[in-house]
Hints:
The protein has helices spanning about 5-40, 45-75, 75-80, 85-95, 95-115, 125-140, 175, 200-215, 235-250, 250-260, 260-265, 270-280, 295-315, 320-340, and strands spanning about 180, 190. It has about 350 residues and is mostly helical. The chain folds into two domains: about 5-150 and about 230-345, no CATH class; about 165-180 and about 190-220, no CATH class. It has a two-stranded antiparallel ribbon with strand order 1-2. Helix 12 packs antiparallel against helix 13. The N and C termini lie far apart (about 65 Å). This is Transmembrane protein 236. InterPro entries: Uncharacterised_FAM23-like_TM. Keywords: Membrane, Transmembrane, Transmembrane helix.
Amino acid sequence: MLSGKTVKVVLYEVLQFACLCVPLFIIMERFASLMRHVRGGDLTAYWLVVAASIAYVTTVSLLVWVPLKYLILTSKRFISEITSWRPITLAYVIVCPLPCFGILLASAKVQVDGGHRLDRLTELAVSLVLIALIIVDIVERIRPFRLTGQAEGLEPDFELPAPVLTHLEQVATVSSQLSPERGQNGSVHQAESGNGSLGNRWRDAEGYSRRASRSAYLYSSSRYPSGRLRALWIRDPRVEAFVESFIFWMDTTEMVRVAEVSSVYYSNWIFPVYILAYLSTLRVVATPNSPLLPFLAVVLQDLPFLVIRICLVAVFGHVTPLLYIMKNLLVCLTYVYFIFMTKLKVFNRTSMF
């Protein structure tokens, strides 16, 4: 009889393989139907596209997907040394979303050049690609956890350790505890360092302690309540993986939704929209806790999305909400300010905010 761990591995692999095949087959079939209508009902073009899709999925599965899965599942040392990026998601983004977005662009190009308005392969196709990508991301996130019982790392009573602020009082600084050194005549000697006097340092330490005591309120939390309300405070990393994965793709989902507008889809603006949407999917290659993820989010998503959204609003009007434009703008500005500008001398003074 198969163990629970084996069943979980088989379930994950079947689910990820389905996310690889289903979007390709559906998008290729709809593209084949479009080619049949463009060519006046010719079935030869239809079956050629279907045969090409079957050949592509078979080749990718045998030459890329299965060998990579076997290498990762059998070589524990190989997978344990990879901590900042995920090879499975990288392979998936290359072999599935890339050809899917390419087929969507090809279908738009065929209709734009021929003056046809037969089918927009966006609503079902793009949603299917993004849902499959989210499922692959979720599987990779929850793979280390069990599917039954409590998640590892949680307390038995589901209470996560948190700082508790019970009483706040003025903390004595170094300047109030140390007595000044007096000389033979009773004069006070102040030892000075190379960068300034100790008195200045004591004043800085005292000011820092006050600021730290004030900010303690912002990050303090009380004990979790007992009784029936106790269930409201439960945190499970498996649930958070689902929530974070869907929120992670909201901006990309809104960008591809703009392509569903007829004026945008039947124009050349469809190409930068889909290209930038695909580039934003490359963020999933980095691990959720990778320090490189904020940089990738700005370079691959927020900055390009900000430019293309401003251009779309200027050309087609309000086809995208102002909320996402402000989101992209604020993310870019805050990243540049806190990462680069705060290192300048003018923004690196303790006397300021």
